[in-house]
Amino acid sequence: MKKEENEFRVRAIGKSDLAMLYNPHMSVREALRLLTRWMRRNEGLWCELQELGYRKSCKILTPREVEVITRHLGEP
């Protein structure tokens, strides 16, 4: 079975790139703010990210961080 080109794949990705996948109709800044708000308001997600060593200032998310985010928020 061939994967579709638009299918999301867990991988290392820039935080702003992931934010834009979730909110393509917004500016990068707005999308990043919204993604960060979702992450902080979801207590289970935020705790898991903290356990992985996530830092607010990071620019690139690890595959494990992306997996945790998409498990809690759904795929973009």
Provide the structure class. Answer: mainly alpha
Poorly predicted sequence stretches spanning 5 or more consecutive residues: none
N-C termini distance: 22 Å
Strand fraction band?
Answer: 5-15%
What share of the residues lie within helices? Answer: 55-70%
Quaternary: single chain
Query: What is the count of DSSP helices, taking H or I runs of 4+ residues?
Result: 4
Quote the average pLDDT: 92
Organism: Bacteroides sedimenti
Protein name: DUF4248 domain-containing protein
Pfam families: DUF4248
Please provide a written account of the structure:
- It holds the Pfam family DUF4248.
- This is DUF4248 domain-containing protein.
- It comes from Bacteroides sedimenti.
- The protein is mainly α.
- It has one domain (13-73).
- The protein is built from 4 helices and 2 strands; from the N terminus they run βαααβα.
- The chain has helices spanning 15-22, 28-41, 43-51, 63-73; strands at 13-14, 60-61.
- A two-stranded antiparallel ribbon has the order 1-2.
- The radius of gyration is 12 Å and the shape is globular.
- The relative contact order is 0.21.
- The model has no long low-confidence stretch (mean pLDDT 92).
